[in-house]
Amino acid sequence: MFSNTREWIVEWGDCDPAGIVFFPRFFAAFDTSTSRLIEAAAGKRTAAIIREHGIVGWPMVDISAKFMIPASYGDRVEIETSVTRVGRSSLSLCHRLTKNGALCIEVSEVRVWAAPRSDGGSGIEGAPIPEDLVAALSGG
Amino acid sequence: MFSNTREWIVEWGDCDPAGIVFFPRFFAAFDTSTSRLIEAAAGKRTAAIIREHGIVGWPMVDISAKFMIPASYGDRVEIETSVTRVGRSSLSLCHRLTKNGALCIEVSEVRVWAAPRSDGGSGIEGAPIPEDLVAALSGG
Amino acid sequence: MFSNTREWIVEWGDCDPAGIVFFPRFFAAFDTSTSRLIEAAAGKRTAAIIREHGIVGWPMVDISAKFMIPASYGDRVEIETSVTRVGRSSLSLCHRLTKNGALCIEVSEVRVWAAPRSDGGSGIEGAPIPEDLVAALSGG
Amino acid sequence: MFSNTREWIVEWGDCDPAGIVFFPRFFAAFDTSTSRLIEAAAGKRTAAIIREHGIVGWPMVDISAKFMIPASYGDRVEIETSVTRVGRSSLSLCHRLTKNGALCIEVSEVRVWAAPRSDGGSGIEGAPIPEDLVAALSGG
Fold this sequence. Notes:
4 copies of one chain form a homotetramer. By secondary structure, chain A is of the alpha+beta class.
């Protein structure tokens, strides 16, 4: 399955009075990692993917995370994001955040490929992931 | 076990280009709900609790969330937060976010009561939750 | 001119490793205060205003802020927001954040009432503020 | 005076329902730019500077910003940060955010070099910027 790794620098505004990352900020970083993985698999910018396919994005439907080691201001960490399952309109991913090789956080998430409701009602619904993206995400 | 409910209003800056809450912003809201529950159980402000007990807070160690219905700008939702387990130095909680009575998100989380390391090294370690707070959190 | 005051509680995730509010978080709070003022003047929810008038919101065009006293985790502060000028498609406001009566921050901002471009191109442009809202914002 | 330029990518979570950056997120980006400039001038990590000098950071005291062109999800922009004045314990900076060469935002800010109060009271006070950093920030 496809995977992608990027560096993430912990900024001042990501940290709380305990001097460690406020955990919702990790989730913002993982959201960026998911976008970068889709971008790398598709070979084009995610903003272009959303526009071309008329979707609203890939909202989160299920997430679980274990926090083992905290990260602090100025830490340069690695986030490795891997596809674990590609469904018709959903996508499972895993993020592993490491600091100097030590595993700090492990996350499993499920996203849905979402479009405006096709019956014209307000709200969103699952839509099929484009075939070429399914192939790319399933690849090595 | 102790529980506490509060209203949360979805603000403009909580929402993404799809017009729904950017999921890490929900986690910031749940973090506030956890603080409000501890405050309500202890009968004093969380900033005072942290200062009096010389702790650094109650960092997240484990969280899982299911997102069923999105929330949008201007929604007024309810977050009900319940204690599910009180350990010596850890605490399990559940958040249920509802909109007009419909369940939108369900979250389980585990927090650790954390203090600076007692051996003087940098970093944090688990510390016993104060007995009166254990009693209050375990109560009805 | 119209004004509106609300309480704001400084949450854990609003604060940085120095234990004080990370300044961009104040701006998120002021953004909410601007929405609350428009809501109070219009007598209806801002999400409804945006939908009914087909606008995209009231993006910031100019802001200046002076920070005199920091705010810390758990502080309960007041934000008083006042209209200082109502133009055809722009709006000037002032925010004063006080803690126990002491002025902590003073902000001047200019917003534009913005709609999708009327020529069908991408992007946004200024649009006239609805007359009844102009009257309400100009009122006492 | 010293200056530093970096690229900033607009992420999904930086944008609002109008599809443009929620303005407080720009300020978080400018805060990072200020840190990067200090880091580049000092030749060491900002976390190390804070630790070595026993300071609490460089909180904002005054800021003004003009927003001319919005930025959207996926935009890759440049932020050029320049020192405009170096005082004994304060620092004035300017940020210019450009997209494909077009100026989108211009910011002036004043920071104070801040340490815990030397009389042992709670709170912070201005402290002299280290001489070698003053020299580096004043340099070309």
